[in-house]
Give the backbone structure.
Amino acid sequence: RVAGTWDTGEQALKRYYDGHRDEFVQAEAVHVRHILTEDEGTARKALLRLVGGEDFAKVAADLSQDKGTAERGGDLEWVERGQTPKPFEDLAFATKSGSVAGPVKTDFGWHVLQVLEHRAAKALSFQEAKGEVAQRLQRSYLEQTLKKLREQTPVTVDTKALSGLGGIQAAQ
């Protein structure tokens, strides 16, 4: 019943967005595919096959140890800074769209990667952020409601009454 009193109309969403505009940002990212191998030699073989004109998806399916992405042609989709190991990230963000690079070593093994596209960071418009704005506004209302309920309903624990329950000593 309480949620029915929350104002989640278009104007309320717009006010929330305007007050938190700096939080609605799409981070810089790269759309990247990779081939993960156990050793540098296998990674170099993968790179040679790619430079020789073989399809990235086929080489990934043949050689990649990352079976989850190998089935999708090595596709990691959009990767933002901080989501991958630093050597991988540095290479991915430095590689031009459409180019293959590597091998590069991380704690997972050796990677050969292909950057499909770069996406610059940008502020999201109200329309682009509207779904997230609605979720955050509702979360804000919920937090306010819970705070009021806690203030209105103080909870006290009668440790003496609990002391004999089940033969377990109550915490003091």
Q: What stands out?
A: The first helix runs from residue 10 to 19. The chain has a mean pLDDT of 89.
